[in-house]
Automatic annotation (TrEMBL):
<keyword id="KW-0067">ATP-binding</keyword>
<keyword id="KW-0808">Transferase</keyword>
<feature type="domain" description="DUF1995">
    <location>
        <begin position="325"/>
        <end position="567"/>
    </location>
</feature>
<dbReference type="Pfam" id="PF09353">
    <property type="entry name" value="DUF1995"/>
</dbReference>
<keyword id="KW-0150">Chloroplast</keyword>
<dbReference type="InterPro" id="IPR027417">
    <property type="entry name" value="P-loop_NTPase"/>
</dbReference>
<keyword id="KW-0934">Plastid</keyword>
<dbReference type="GO" id="GO:0005524">
    <property type="term" value="F:ATP binding"/>
</dbReference>
<protein>
    <recommendedName>
        <fullName>adenylate kinase</fullName>
        <ecNumber>2.7.4.3</ecNumber>
    </recommendedName>
</protein>
<dbReference type="GO" id="GO:0009507">
    <property type="term" value="C:chloroplast"/>
</dbReference>
<dbReference type="InterPro" id="IPR000850">
    <property type="entry name" value="Adenylat/UMP-CMP_kin"/>
</dbReference>
<dbReference type="GO" id="GO:0004017">
    <property type="term" value="F:AMP kinase activity"/>
</dbReference>
<dbReference type="InterPro" id="IPR036193">
    <property type="entry name" value="ADK_active_lid_dom_sf"/>
</dbReference>
<keyword id="KW-0547">Nucleotide-binding</keyword>
<comment type="similarity">
    <text>Belongs to the adenylate kinase family.</text>
</comment>
<dbReference type="InterPro" id="IPR006259">
    <property type="entry name" value="Adenyl_kin_sub"/>
</dbReference>
<dbReference type="Pfam" id="PF00406">
    <property type="entry name" value="ADK"/>
</dbReference>
Length: 592
């Protein structure tokens, strides 16, 4: 067997006359079949080899007596975990997931039965505990799951791990073995619905079929007469099982909070509607993996988002520690680099934490400049010529001036330490905003907090600059481009609609905002984060029993969520349920 590394490209030629004494293309003398994932060539007169390009972008070659098979799928296999309380509909959704995405369905219950019936070493160990009426130890179950995941079908097609891990220790064992999912789906169903589903279930002892007295009654009176209630489907036992499930789910959430996707289900949603939500989540995760593959990222990262460590805590304690500031600088940098590598040219970064919010305290402008310096130096290290731009004075006469939080910014930038390699003046230069600021040697532009002021609009200068920059990236850091009232004598070359349309042409490559109760800055209730090319993630801040705080993901969104969507997620309501922006979260209307 000969392993050969290949670059993750969309198309390539694979032909060596010494290795293959034939042309690997369709001809009259060779039959061929093509699909989106494989090419099969079968010349009859040569000893040929079978080639399979696995999803980790390695080529395996084995010889066969006849036939050449080239499987060149560039899709990354999905690795999915799904969790749900008893009667949440998890089994039904697993069937739909497998049918749509072709994943290998792995259930620990099925594995145990198969191992025991096969008489394997693991099965015999499990049988000893089961016969003694004891739970099978975690290490036995984990070994069984690991062995199943190591099979070729799971590696090639991806896997769906159903209902496992069920405890914190099991989750940590999988982590230590580098068994890490791309996404952790949780089916969130209200207790009253779960209880109703369980106590209404009936088992047909003849066929083994499960019925429900309300939602899925038996077809005939004869079947109805022989139905029985399973011993664990009483209300008392269901409530006990739910409590155990919740305790375990809370413990596991700390391990997978950064990739958790919660799917809220009410009693009126048919299985097809629930699956539409899951389908959307998995399709987005698949797209994200393919995007990373195009960008040449490692396929072995510990999460979908480049080893992202989760949201840091104690963000209301200012000044922030150097570690927290560095965390955000790196988070912004990674997202911006991904967007630029993907060909995006009109970008904006919006980050609102106390240490980076000059609107709350003008002295925070120094931290914002530190973020700008971090971005500029990183791009300069890659050999790019970066121009850092700060808007100058706008208006004339009594209207001349600039926003307070930008006063002195240019001087701060000039006196900052730009490293010992004399990057400033060579690879990094400081300028203003406008078409005349664009020089031929500039590769990209970082604009510091461009904003409109009453009576003056930065849009005209900004538009002139982006026109002159052409396809070179322009990155806005914390822009404020909302339309403000004009003053007499100040004319705009664009109408209001055009200005707003232009402002919206910049897409977020990074977004982070802390969420508070209305009219307060304490306590932090949650956060909204987006890092290109991933979805918007809504988090809730919670205090764990040890007194430490953590951020638990509530929901994800393909676009920036509205106030209503944020409200509904915090209140646990389905997304399609309309709601006015009132109450504690009403203030978000003015933010989003």
């Amino acid at each position: 067997m000969l392993p050969t590394s290949l670059s993750p490209v969309h198309s390539f030629s694979l032909y060596s006359p010494s290795l293959f004494p034939f042309s690997p293309f369709p001809s009259s003398s060779s039959s061929s079949s093509f699909s989106s994932s494989s090419v099969s060539l079968e010349p009859s007169s040569h000893r040929l080899c079978s080639l399979r390009l696995y999803n980790n972008a390695h080529l395996r070659i084995t010889y066969k007596s006849n036939g050449l098979k080239l499987n060149c799928s560039l899709k990354e296999p999905l690795k999915v975990m799904i969790s749900g309380a008893p009667a949440s509909g998890k089994g039904t959704q697993c069937e739909l997931i497998v049918r749509k995405f072709g994943l290998v369905h792995i259930s620990t219950g099925d594995l145990l039965r198969a191992e025991v019936s096969s008489g394997t070493e693991i099965g015999n160990k499990a049988k000893e505990f089961m016969n003694a009426g004891r739970l099978v130890p975690d290490e036995v179950v984990t070994a069984m799951v690991t062995a199943r995941l190591s099979r070729e079908d799971a590696k090639e097609n991806g896997w769906l791990l159903d209902g496992y891990p069920r405890s914190f220790n099991q989750a940590q064992s999988l982590q230590s073995l580098k068994i890490i999912p791309d996404v952790y789906i949780v089916l969130d169903v209200p207790d009253e619905i779960l209880i109703d589903r369980c106590i209404g279930r009936r088992l047909d002892p003849v066929t083994g079929r499960i019925y429900h007295l309300k939602s899925f009654p038996p077809e005939t009176e004869e079947i109805k007469a022989r139905l029985i209630t399973r011993p664990d489907d009483t209300e008392e036992k269901v409530k006990s099982r739910l409590e155990i499930y919740k305790q375990n789910a809370d413990a596991i959430s700390t391990t997978y909070s950064h990739i958790m996707k919660k799917v809220s289900i009410d009693g009126n949603h048919p299985k097809e509607v629930v699956f539409e939500v899951i389908d959307s989540i998995l399709s987005q995760v698949q797209k994200d993996k393919e995007t990373k593959m195009k960008l040449g990222k490692s396929n072995q990262s510990t999460s979908v988002q480049d080893n992202w460590r989760g949201i840091p805590t104690k963000l209301n304690n200012i000044p922030h520690s150097r570690d927290i500031r560095k965390y955000f600088y790196e988070d912004v940098l990674q997202a911006t680099q991904r967007a630029i590598n993907d060909g995006r040219t009109r970008l904006k970064v919006e980050i609102n934490i106390p240490e980076l919010n000059p609107e709350m305290d003008v002295y925070r402008i120094g931290t914002l400049m530190e973020l700008v310096r971090s971005l500029a130096l990183s791009f300069a290290d890659d050999g790019k010529h970066v121009k850092v731009c700060v808007q100058g004075s706008m208006g004339e006469g009594a209207l001349a001036g600039m926003p307070l939080q930008l006063a002195g910014t240019r001087k701060i930038l000039e006196f900052m330490d730009w490293g010992e390699y004399e990057a400033m003046g060579t690879f990094i230069n400081i300028g203003s905003i406008g078409g005349k600021e664009v020089d031929e040697q500039d590769d990209l532009f970082i604009l510091v907090a461009p904003q409109n002021a009453v009576g003056n609009c930065i849009i005209d200068d900004l538009r002139a600059m982006t026109d002159a920059a052409g396809d070179r990236p322009v990155i806005l850091i914390n822009p404020r481009l909302k339309d403000l009232p004009a003053s007499s004598g100040i004319m705009q070359t664009m109408g209001r609609d055009k200005r707003l349309e232009y402002a919206s042409s910049f897409e977020n490559c990074y977004f982070f905002r802390l969420l508070y109760y209305a009219g307060t800055q304490y306590p932090i209730m949650g956060a909204l984060r987006m890092s290109y090319p991933y979805r918007y993630e809504l988090y809730k801040r919670v205090d764990d029993p040890s007194g430490k705080e953590k951020y638990v993901i509530l929901s994800t969104f393909p676009e920036k969520p509205s106030t209503d969507e944020v409200n509904d997620a915090f209140e646990g309501k389905p997304r399609n349920e309309s709601k006015k922006a009132l109450g504690f979260w009403g203030f978000l209307s003015g933010i989003f």
